Amino acid sequence: MKLYSTNNHNLSVDFPTAVFNSMPADKGLYMPVHIPQLDQEFIDTIDQFTLPQIAFKVASALLQGAIPADDLKRIIDDAINFDAPVVKLAEDDYVLELFHGPSLAFKDFGARFMSRIMGYFLKDNEQMLDVLVATSGDTGGAVALGFLGVPNTRVTILYPKGKVSDIQELQLCTNGQNIHAIEVEGTFDDCQALVKQAFADDELNAKLRLTSANSINISRLIPQTFYYFNAYAQLKKQGKREVVFVVPSGNFGNIAAGLLAYKMGLPVKQFVAATNVNDTVPRFLETGVYETRPSVQTYANAMDVGAPSNWVRIMDLFQNDKAALQQILKSYRFTDQETLEGMQVLYSDFNYIACPHTAIAWKALQEYRKDAADKDFAGVFLSTAHACKFPDIFPEEMKAKIEIPEQVKNLAKKQKQSTVMDTAFESFKEYLNSY
Ligand SMILES: N[C@@H](CCOP(=O)(O)O)C(=O)O
Hints:
The chain is of the alpha/beta class. It has a domain at 83-105 and 219-401: Rossmann fold (3-Layer(aba) Sandwich), CATH 3.40.50.1100. The chain contains 19 helices and 14 strands. A six-stranded mixed beta sheet has the order 4-5-13-10-11-12, with helices on both faces. β4 (86-90) and β5 form a beta hairpin. α3 packs across α10 and α5 (107-121) crosses α10 (218-237). 51% of the residues are buried. The mean pLDDT is 96. It binds the ligand N[C@@H](CCOP(=O)(O)O)C(=O)O. Residues 107, 135-140, 214-215, 250-251, 253, 302, 305 line the site of the ligand N[C@@H](CCOP(=O)(O)O)C(=O)O. InterPro entries: Ser/Thr_deHydtase_PyrdxlP-BS, Thr_synth_N, Thr_synth_N_sf, Thr_synthase-like, Threonine_Synthase, TrpB-like_PALP, TrpB-like_PALP_sf. Keywords: Amino-acid biosynthesis, Lyase, Pyridoxal phosphate, Threonine biosynthesis.
């Protein structure tokens, strides 16, 4: 497998290089040179395969032998050991539940696959790998659990102080061992900027072997394609062929993976990106002006991203042809008030308790249905996190009905450990230098 940079299409690196570098020196993002087409026979019979089998087929096509088949199969079976069910909510509305992994968010797909890929390529006698990750809520917890105890790795998680939920914070700060948490007195964008600055710092790079566990890393994106294929398979079993995917979007990694799956031959009628008021992409699709803004805190905190990292990948997948992209991608934005309304209606009309991100996706599906000329499709909205991660947002009656998984009950017994830091790069550099 060869990868180029979105800033330099002549660059060509192999898969392990892209995984460990995370980001090319020119500050673009890695993309596969060859986007494989899955054969029609596979797509036609996809409903006969299990999630791990689909994942293996998709990963083999993308990785093109970068990992021998038996090893890749073992990695996938170990990483993707939980389900991603498509649950029917109404006649043509389905929810794709992606929160059945250990950290209760869709990030488990990417983080678990990535940690195993890195573990596979790392040699025992090599320099320690320093994994840096910025999180607005869910990524950090998944990465922490994915890398916990992985030999020769040390994870540093940066999160915006006071802007993640209590459970998310416990998931970040109670792991110990090789996992360190920093609460940054700023926004997620400040955290993301600090991490990116560290990758560009020659002194740090001379001393530490740095890599990123954010979705800028291609090994985070690849496993996120698996569940789009698997959702299509589940719908096909029910006789549905015309599928619209609605994706709660912040850093746009999730929907970038969906669009990559589409480019590999997954039949999709439409993608819809659903955002909160951090609406850089909906504004761009409306006005043609790509203007990032500092992120604003909302109930859907994992989507509080003002400068979505993966947008360049999406533009690149469509050769920067905005008109072509607008055909397949629509976008809607929602306020906190609208998010709450969505959560209420999902509960009162369907007895479904959804996290704020999921509720935003459901709202976007309803809007898209109103706007669509052809309304004959199965609408699948992605549920990216378990509702129990955001208890404070729910009205008491709904809150009381949220099932609390065992791993969350255990978190409360653990001790929080973190370092508070300002947004100056020098502070972060000093911290890393003290390792
Ligand atoms: N939504 C994220 C923000 C980080 O984005 P990622 O695409 O790098 O995972 C979070 O929950 O932290």
